[in-house]
Design brief:
Largest interface: A-B, 35 and 35 residues
Strand content of chain A: 15-25%
Helix content of chain A: 40-55%
Oligomer: homodimer
Shape of chain A: globular
Amino acid sequence: MRKNGIFMLFFLLSLMLTAGTKKISTVNDELSSWSNTKVKKEIISYINEITDKNSLYFIPEDERFAVFDNDGTLWAEKPVPEEMFIIYYAEKMVRKNPKLKNSMPFNKIKDFYENGKFVIKDRMLFDEIVGITHRGMTKDEFRKTAEEFFREVKYPKGDVPMSKIVYQPQLELMNYLRKNGFKVYICSGGETEFMRAISKEYYGIPEEQVIGSELVFEYDENNNTMTRNSKLYTDNNGKAKANNTLYRLGRPAVFAVGNVGSGGDIYMLRYSQASKYKSFQLLINHDDEKREFLYNEKNGISLKWAEKYNWNVVSMKDDWKQIFPGQVFSN
Amino acid sequence: MRKNGIFMLFFLLSLMLTAGTKKISTVNDELSSWSNTKVKKEIISYINEITDKNSLYFIPEDERFAVFDNDGTLWAEKPVPEEMFIIYYAEKMVRKNPKLKNSMPFNKIKDFYENGKFVIKDRMLFDEIVGITHRGMTKDEFRKTAEEFFREVKYPKGDVPMSKIVYQPQLELMNYLRKNGFKVYICSGGETEFMRAISKEYYGIPEEQVIGSELVFEYDENNNTMTRNSKLYTDNNGKAKANNTLYRLGRPAVFAVGNVGSGGDIYMLRYSQASKYKSFQLLINHDDEKREFLYNEKNGISLKWAEKYNWNVVSMKDDWKQIFPGQVFSN
C-alpha cells in the first residue's frame, strides 16, 4: 500500500511535470533559439496580453503590425549585403566589358579591398558606383541582377550563402508574431527593390510589406516600363522610418525592432510608442564577438534612447542561444 | 409507359434547368447589381480563368492585386466629397471663431455656391482653403475632423448620408474579388488620410491598402506626434498612380478600375498591363443622367486609350442594374 502510494505520488508528480514541461516546450518550440532570459519572457508576456480578449491591453487582429529593420536586425551587416552587391555588380560590368577597367570609377574598385576585406574608405567614390549599379535600368533588369547576386555570392565572414546570414531567433520571432495575427513588415534603409528580391524567400515577408529607400522611377506608357532614375524618392533612414511607417500603414506599428549600429532605427522605435495600443520595442545589441560581431555607436544614442523610453535590449551574446541557421560563423 | 416516359423527360429536364439556374444564380448573387451584359461576363470569365489551377492564365493567390480609383469609380464625384469637406471645414472654423468671417479667404466662401450648388470657380482661392483645412494639424486632429464630416454632412444630390453615394455594383465587385483571393487597394488622387477615415467602413478596405496623395509630415519625437506640413509628398494623379502602385505593391496590379472624367486613371490602368500575368482593366463611363450623372472628358482620352489598349468599358446606364444602395438619387 505504502509502496503503491509512493508510486502514485511519483505518477502524479510526473504527470504534473510533463504538463508543465509541455507548456514551456511549446513556447520553446516557437522561440527555441532565444535563451530563457528576461527579454524572451517580456515578448511572450506582451503577446499573451495583447491577444487575450479579456485583457485591458487587447489589440484587435487587424491592428497588429510589426516593423523590423533589416541590416543588423534581420541579417548581418558587416559588410552590408547591399554594399557587397554594388561592388559585385561593378566588377561584373568590367568582366562583360573589359575596356571599362581603366576608366573611372571602375579603375578604383580595388580600393574597396584591404587585406582581402571589403571596406568603404571613399564614400563619394562609392556613391558614384551606386549610381552606376542602381540607376538607369528598368525595374525588371535590376531585379534580375539582384537575384543573380543572391544566387552567386557568398558572405565573406563564414563564406556562406547569403541566406545563411539571417538571424535564426528573428525568423522564429516573425513566425511567432504571424501566428498571433501580426502583419510583419520590413522598414529599412536598404533599397526596396533590392530587399524585395529575397524578402519572401528569406523572411516570409511579401513584397508589398517591404518599406525601404526608393528611387524615382520614370514611367514609359508606350513600352510599359519603369526605369530607375538618379533621384531618390525617399531615403528611409532616421525620421523617414517613422514617416514611411505612417504612409504605408496609416498608423504606428505596435511592435518595432531595430539595432544598435548607426542610430538609424531610433525614430522608428520611438514612433511605435505613439500607438493608441500598448506597444513593444526591441533593440538588438551586437555584443557577440565570438558568434557574430562586436560593435557599437560613437554616440551610443540607441542605447540611451532604449533606457530613456523603456525599450527591451537584446544582448546577442546572452539572449540568443543560436544566431545563424547552422551556427555558421563561429570563430 | 409513354406517359411515364414523358414525366421522366420533364423530370430530367427540370433537374438540368435547376442545376443550370443554380449555377447562374450563384454568380448573380455575387454581382447582382450588374446587368447580364458583356462586361459582367468578361469579369466572371477572367476570374474563372486566373483562379483555375489548370488554366494557362492561373495567377498564384499572393499575386492577385486589384487597384480601384475612388472619386467617380467607387463613389459619386459631382461634387467630389473631399472638396465638400474643405468648404465644410472652413465654414466650421468661422462658426467657432466668427471674427474670421471678414478676413481672407473666409469672406469668399460664399463664392463657392451658385444657386445653392457647390462650384469651384476660383481654383487658387480654393487651394488657399485647402491649405487651411488640410495642413498644420496633427494626423489625429485631422482624422477627427474628417470623421466628423462623414457623420454630419449629406450629399447635395439626393440629400443622403455620404455612405449612400458609393456604387453598389463596385461593392459587389470588390467582395467578389476578395472571395477569389484578391487584395483590394484604393489608388486615388484623394488625400490618403481623408480616405482612410472611411475606407474600411464604406469599402472593406483596410487603411494600409489605401494609396493616395500625401502631405509631408513633421515628426516630433518628444511629443510623438506627426504634424501635416504644407508640402505635398506625392500627388497621386496621372503617372504617379502607376509609380505609387509599384512603390506600394512591388509589381503592377492585375486588376485595375478607373473612370472617365479627368483622364487621371489612364496610367494606372495602362500600368496594370505591364504585369507578367493576364490582367484586366475596367473603365467606368458616367452616361446615366437619370440615375447618376452624365459627363465626359474634353479630350476623351480615357475612352481613346480604352479602345487602343483593349480595356473593358462600363456603361453605368446599361451595365449596372442598380447604382446606389437603395437607388438614392433617382431624378
